[in-house]
Amino acid sequence: MPWSRFPEDFLWGAASSAYQIEGATRADGRGESIWDVFCRKPGSTEEGTSGENACRHYELWESDVELIRSLGLKSYRFSIAWPRILPHGIGAVNAKGLDFYERLLDRLLALGITPNITLYHWDLPQALEDRDGWPARDTALAFAEYTATVLKRLGDRPALWSTFNEPWCVAHAGYGSGAHAPGRRESAKVVNQVIHHILLAHGWGVQAIRANSKAAKVGIVIVPVVPIPYTQSPEDVRAAEEHWQAENDWWMHPLLLGRYPEAVLAWKGADAPDTLPGDMEAIHQRLDWLGLNFYFPNRVAAGGTPLKPNLVRPKDAPTTAMPEWEVHPPIAERILLEFHRRYPRLPLYVTENGAAFPGDEPDAQGRVRDPLRLAYIRDHLASAKRAMDQGVDLRGWYVWSLMDNFEWRFGYQKRFGLHYTDTTTYQRRVKDSGLWYAETIRNGGFETA
Ligand code: IFM
Cys-Cys with 387: which of 27, 57, 192, 392 at CB 3.0–4.6 Å? Predict the structure, then answer.
């Protein structure tokens, strides 16, 4: 049997985020976030659920670190809740918030587990949303203040840091469709302005990290689209290429080249963001790594426009429990090779990949059999390894997620965890996929069919 064998120093990891697991939304001086407010609005989330308790990780963090240790993870990716650090977004600092993350960070380091810390995984302090949130340029300044505050306290520890998780979702779901907090449905112009302010916040944030830490390795985590032409007709191929440019170049060019792509600016026309002199230089900061989150392909056929592509799903394609998320493992090789080929090269990490499938319930013996998740993770990893064999510098992999958690507007019904979380007792239970992942880590790889 052939093996997918990974390098010895490959960072095997799992990921989570503050609002999705911590709970304790009113504890120890934490301020309110936009997700607290959004979840209270009837109809915002399935079954009216929220992250008020989530997985109670704020209380149970020590036993959660034990889960991480017993899987043998080399790295753990988590996020810091801005409202725990600066309850009003700016100004007064809440020391208890910093204490919490310091304890977690130090425990991970003591166990030899590399922390990979995200500064913004969607939980903006509501106080800043009250001042117009990301459409306001001042929010980017506030992010730089928050970042400096965190790094002054924690920046002497060796860790990977990222400024943003999936900024696409912040802009499009938060301020475009309104499916995420703060639930606003603004014009394309405003959404593009949000993108610009997030990019600016990233740039100022990187400067704040570098000014306050010698030990930090700095990156950003994006969620690229993975366009695949529906057929090999020149029209479909072209439509897929334009979708790539409109989404991926739009984020990557400012970050890595210091300019918005000309073609996309032309497509956006008057909806392009307003910029000030010096903005593009501020955005274009040296990065140490880039994080990619991907889950499914976008099959693109002709008949749309670059900004509104014609996305089609093959009739019998397997999907996960997330509506429209097709299972197609070759996306891993594809996206990694494309990033390697198209952009200035940086060490890459797959900062999220994983799946929710229906039916993850413990059996009578308490075992959680999740063969579909196991296969999903294995097949995406095998595909990524093929990209590595072609020269892609992939340094690590984080399964989403360490444990079942609050899946935003879908509440607790979509379970992505390597551990099952009982939503009544909060007990965690490792799933078969978690056991397989632990064995893979021990063996440095796995047999491929
Ligand atoms: O749960 C989310 C996570 O917060 C961001 N990336 C996608 C995951 C699954 O939807």
Answer: 392
